[in-house]
Specification:
about 230 residues; alpha/beta; Metallo-beta-lactamase, Chain A; 5-stranded mixed beta sheet
Amino acid sequence: MAIKKIIDNVYQVSLGMVNCFIIDDDGLTLIDTGFQGSEKKIFEALSEIGNRPKDIKQIILTHLHPDHAGSAADIQKMLQIPVFAHETDAELLKKGICFREPMIRTPGFFPWLIFNLFMRNTPSTIKPVDPITTLQHDQLLPVLSGLRVIPTPGHSEGHISLLLEKEQVLIAGDICGNTGGLNYSILYEDPALAKQTLKEVAKYNFNIACFGHGNPLWEGANKKMADKFK
Ligand SMILES: [Zn+2]
Ligand SMILES: [Zn+2]
């Protein structure tokens, strides 16, 4: 199954290289959208939990990259629904720009390998996403019992993570990944800022963390992140 339950009403959908997330709460909130052309896979995953495309009421993007924002324009157009993102990344997404250069590769063999196998030829433009409703720092969105918008710059300047406070689930985006173990993402706009962000995020209260790439951390996730990224 492409869709995996994280907790009641929260699901991770594997789109191959990248995950998106669904929160089911009187309509569905779709967090990230995969590369361009991922809508069919997302809709098939929805059908596995008894939902249809028109049940999606809004899209939230963690950041501008094409593996997260790539299908946003098509899904928005098809369903006529709002898209939310941080202002800084939204400005570029409205123009169809999905990378802010330069991106700096994390040192080491694994990032080198993944970059050369999968990321070297990634498109730098996508269909423009417009309109976008911008999110405020620390805004509490009315999703389940409250979805907190946490600014997490470094991977991209306008990157956000989303925290279900009561449920203690963090949807982290690409601040780090958990592919073959918890580790830094392959690329950062600002590695030093990203490291600071990781330390700050780990201070929040969450038990489970989910990532754009790799598997969730199921237990004591904030402590594991604090230990890894100190
Ligand atoms: Zn990214
Ligand atoms: Zn990504």
